[in-house]
Amino acid sequence: MNFLLEEELNLPTAGEIRHGWVVNQHGNDILVDIGAKSEGIIPNQEVEKLDKETRELLSPGSEVFVYVVDPEDQNGNVILSYVRAAQEQDWQLAESLMSSQDVYEGTIVGFNKGGLLVRVGQLRGFVPNSQLELERFNGRQITPPQLQKMVGKSLSAKVIEVSRERNRLILSERAAGKELREAKRNRLLDSMQDGSTFEGRVVNLTEYGAFVDIGGIEGLVHVSELSWKRIKKPADILQVGDKVNVAVINVDQDKQRIALSMKRLEADPWTEVEQLYQEGQLIEATITKLTKFGAFARLNDDYELEGLIHISELSADHVEHPRELLKPGDVVMVRIIRIAADQRQLGLSIKEVSSAKYIEADMAILATN
């Protein structure tokens, strides 16, 4: 019979959170309708400690959640607490975040030498220094002045420990950072297209290329894509930490690999070769490779294009193999005898360097200089 009566009157129980509406303010007490036989009271002792913003939330007509402290005090009143209801909901939120491992974004409200304090509703969570991302400190030791500068800023973190009994709520920015970087990486990969350009930072150098970070994801600039000039190894032109502009030339979504190029953002000298050189021009070159049909030579100028000295252009005398006259690394004077920009070819000659055919033109060039 008593059970049926309590159910009909919707009697509150201690520790219960009730949904209600603010009815009135009597002195500093706030009266709240929680659907029971009488209105509950948030006592003045609690109200006086609330900040202005929170008090405004408790104006007449406002919808609120309250915690039942005492279903009936010595005066027959239902004693309620807005703060404890908020805290209870925040502990439930913290436990939910702990269970789901969702990333929570909160405001940094304080610090101590051990870490940062982050607001989780009305609770204060603690982020130890060991759980902060060192990247934001440039990999250096964390100091109190650095922590102080972060107060008021937002921070993304995961809840890693919840203990109501010890009033302990621990969060980790590092745990969240890994997930956020992975999500950012996937978004970037999905949106990336061949030809997209980025500013990046060199993070590693190997014999075969340079790895460049382009916003949380690394791509490889193969040594052949570093420059139109011949590069023996990446360290010849780059250092770790250098900022570079790169173009995407291939994205492998399955393997999550990105091929990048630096040289494709520079002018291709082969497109301007006919303006850079002319047939009959004398120029110094370095022998790079010998074959049975001739020798390849790299022009010793700013563009370092490579051309072929056919075996028939090595000497006026018969030559069985270029090694009879040359070896890789030799520096020789050559004459440009053929330019084929569409085929990316230069024909060079040693035999024609002193040819009477070009002497008159050479003298004219010397006279103008």
Please provide a written account of the structure.
- The chain is of the alpha+beta class.
- The chain has 4 domains: 2-87, OB fold (Dihydrolipoamide Acetyltransferase, E2P); 101-179, Beta Barrel (OB fold (Dihydrolipoamide Acetyltransferase, E2P)); 192-265, OB fold (Dihydrolipoamide Acetyltransferase, E2P), CATH 2.40.50.140; 270-368, Nucleic acid-binding proteins (OB fold (Dihydrolipoamide Acetyltransferase, E2P)).
- It is built from 8 helices and 20 strands.
- The protein has helices at residues 2-9, 44-47, 52-57, 82-100, 144-148, 173-191, 273-276, 356-368, and strands at residues 17-26, 29-33, 40-42, 63-70, 78-81, 104-112, 115-120, 123-128, 154-163, 168-172, 197-205, 209-213, 218-222, 243-252, 257-261, 282-291, 294-299, 306-310, 331-340, 345-349.
- The strands form 4 sheets. It has a 5-stranded mixed beta barrel with strand order 1-2-3-5-4. A 5-stranded antiparallel sheet has the order 8-7-6-9-10.
- Strand 11 and strand 12 form a beta hairpin.
- The longest helix has 19 residues, at 82-100.
- It is rod-shaped and about 125 Å long.
- It starts with a helix and ends with a helix.
- Residues 1-7 have low confidence and may be disordered.
Query: Which CATH architecture of the largest domain is right?
Result: Beta Barrel
Total strands: 20
Order of helices and strands: HEEEHHEEHEEEHEEHEEEEEHEEEEEH
Major β-sheet profile: 5 strands, mixed, barrel
Number of helices: 8
Annotated CATH homologous superfamily of the largest domain: Nucleic acid-binding proteins
Q: Provide the CATH topology of the largest domain.
A: OB fold (Dihydrolipoamide Acetyltransferase, E2P)
Radius of gyration: 39 Å
What is the CATH level 1 assignment of the largest domain? Mainly Beta
Quaternary state reads single chain
Major sheet: order of its strands?
A: 1-2-3-5-4
Give the helix level as a range of percent: 10-25%
Measured distance between first and last alpha carbons: 119 Å
Structural class: alpha+beta
Average predicted local confidence, pLDDT: 88
- The share of residues in extended strands comes to 35-45%
Uncertain regions spanning at least 5 consecutive residues: 1-7
Shape: rod-shaped
Domains, number? 4
